[in-house]
Amino acid sequence: MIKKIIFSLIIFALLIFGLLQLQFVQNQLADYTIRSQIYNVLVENSRMPSEDALSALICGSRSPVVASTERAETCTMIVAGNDVFIVDVGDGSVNNLRNWGVPFDQIKAVLITHLHSDHISDLADLHLMTWASKLPNEKSKLYVYGPLGIDAVTAGFELSYKLDYMYRNRHHGDKLMPLSSAGYIPKVFNEGNVLKFTDSELEIRPFSVMHSPVEPSFGLRFDYKGRSVVISGDTIPSDNVVKFASNADVLIHEAQSNYLVDLARDELERNENFLSKIMTDIKTYHTTPKDAARIAKKAEVKHLILNHLSPSPDGYVAKKFFSRGLNDIFEYWTIAEDGMMVSLPVGNAEINFSKFDR
Ligand SMILES: [Zn+2]
Ligand SMILES: [Zn+2]
């Protein structure tokens, strides 16, 4: 009986393999693949919130420490009504956004919490998507808000991509990719500023956090029609996060397991790898999951999302480890995943989670 089953499976596998060699079958599969990719771009926008809400989509959930096949570096997409903002844009995050078919034409601005590479490295790819996607009469350079020094960053990207802008303009023409809207408009923010945008009730408040030697370094609070999301940025435990996150619906706080970082350091030392020093250095400028929970409790937020995860807690056991002891401090927490969206509908107190998949 078992012999018969194995024989049938082998015949079946050979049949499938044979079919895949036929051009007709390849044509059908290619047609299906392209259709679904285009569908992603044109139709999947329907996964965006249909009701009036303030939402946050995690487009990257890891720190640069230890690679992960499941996660891009830090990125959060904030949606307020029809307006879209991208907060930090680390390695792999734009690939996520493209795969999910998010509406690049609705992006009003990028906000950068601080000028570490894992928060800015995909800026050029994001620029390409907004440059190409916006309608001809809505095209403009990409607004990038950030701390002092953001203008040097955008000027550097413009210099590096000057030839690329020219090639794409020559190839695709002035209507699709005009040189007049290639590049960035940098805007420096500070604590005390309230950022507002035309035709939007969203208010964004930057606040200082502690990520020395990175100075200045900011967190951001988003308020929209009575709902609120706070992003901590990279920081050690900070009273300013407690102050600005006070009574927020959702606090997205960075988190680092120093125990796991120590394990990584020990392993690197065993292998006499000089990168072990980094594992010692980073312990002094991040927040542990338990400290993030303490901050959430003090600030009396409704829900805590741990993000900028260091090292990446991939898999069931790693997540259990990362979240050990949290429930004793603060009950309402979630570990971020790429594609996780939290939506806060206007007019009620709901906190709804959903997932963007590829
Ligand atoms: Zn970072
Ligand atoms: Zn940082």
Question: What can you see in these coordinates?
Answer:
There is one protein chain. With 358 residues, the chain is an alpha/beta fold. The protein folds into 2 domains: 1-42, no CATH class; 50-355, Metallo-beta-lactamase, Chain A, CATH 3.60.15. The protein has helices spanning 2-20, 23-42, 93-99, 123-133, 150-160, 162-176, 239-244, 258-270, 276-281, 289-299, 316-322, 326-329, and strands at residues 53-60, 75-80, 83-89, 107-111, 142-146, 184-188, 195-196, 203-208, 218-224, 227-231, 250-256, 303-310, 333-335, 340-345, 352-355. Strand 2 (75-80) and strand 3 (83-89) form a beta hairpin. Bound molecules: zinc ion (ZN) (2 copies). One zinc ion binds next to loops.
Architecture blueprint of SSEs:
Elements: H1 2-20, H2 23-42, E1 53-60, E2 75-80, E3 83-89, H3 93-99, E4 107-111, H4 123-133, E5 142-146, H5 150-160, H6 162-176, E6 184-188, E7 195-196, E8 203-208, E9 218-224, E10 227-231, H7 239-244, E11 250-256, H8 258-270, H9 276-281, H10 289-299, E12 303-310, H11 316-322, H12 326-329, E13 333-335, E14 340-345, E15 352-355
Parallel strand pairs: 3-4, 4-5, 5-6, 10-11, 11-12, 12-13
Antiparallel strand pairs: 1-2, 1-14, 2-3, 7-8, 8-9, 9-10, 14-15
Bound molecules: zinc ion (2 copies).
Fill in the CATH topology of the largest domain: Metallo-beta-lactamase, Chain A
How many domains is the backbone divided into? Answer: 2
Order of helices and strands: HHEEEHEHEHHEEEEEHEHHHEHHEEE
| Count of individual helical segments | 12
Which ligands, by name, code or SMILES, are bound? zinc ion
Rg calc: 23 Å
What is the fourth-level CATH superfamily of the largest domain?
Ribonuclease Z/Hydroxyacylglutathione hydrolase-like
Just name the CATH architecture of the largest domain: 4-Layer Sandwich
Distance between the termini: 40 Å
